[in-house]
């Protein structure tokens, strides 16, 4: 049997914040809702710090589009810098790493020191030896049926918590019509400890076999009836099942 990690691990998982969304229209009401979305992202950072998380994951669509002002970008990077832990982030379909990518011109010197931004379309591994953790993710370039968010995952590493980030649509139907499909078989075959998913705006536990997997839902009040959003805390304790805890985010 491969060796297992010896230390516990606490993760805050968020996605689909959609900063600067234009779906609210213009005028005072739209501006007020966009400001609530910003405050919601600040709330995610607060939760991660208050819970003394070891890692924070942003699984795509932090921004609603690639048409982001310098002020909005500065706000987001400034909030990430407030996090007292490493932050791992991938692009989603709204902020895709394509020819219009807002991430293309962000040099390492412009990023917070704690931000690990995965921009490799074929996928990339990050090792955190002090956390006994290895993370894999890939950048979304085109949101099409041909793009497989979990395609090319390496085998899990022994003696590590193995975590994956994937932005796409969980589907049990192999119809070939869904863009960025993620299947139950792919999740189970990964044999990872946790697959953090983004793209769906509501919480959903789609664990398969021994692999826990979930959508955390959006932390932002993206709809007029919403008073709060959500993040997920993942608790990894040696010898115990991976635990998922939904936490409310109030703007």
Q: What would the keywords be for this entry?
A:
3 helices, globular, 251 residues, alpha/beta
Task: Describe the 3D structure.
The protein is an alpha/beta fold and 251 residues long. The protein has a single domain (9-249), classed as Purple Acid Phosphatase, chain A, domain 2 (4-Layer Sandwich). It has three helices and 14 strands. A six-stranded mixed beta sheet has the order 4-3-2-1-13-14. Strands 5-6-7-10-12-11 form a six-stranded mixed beta sheet, with no helix packed on it. A two-stranded parallel sheet has the order 8-9. Helix 1 runs parallel beside helix 2 (70-82).
Task: State the end-to-end CA separation.
Answer: 46 Å
CATH class: Alpha Beta
- As for the CATH topology, it is Purple Acid Phosphatase, chain A, domain 2
Rounded mean pLDDT is: 91
* Number of E strands: 14
Order of strands, main sheet, comes to: 4-3-2-1-13-14
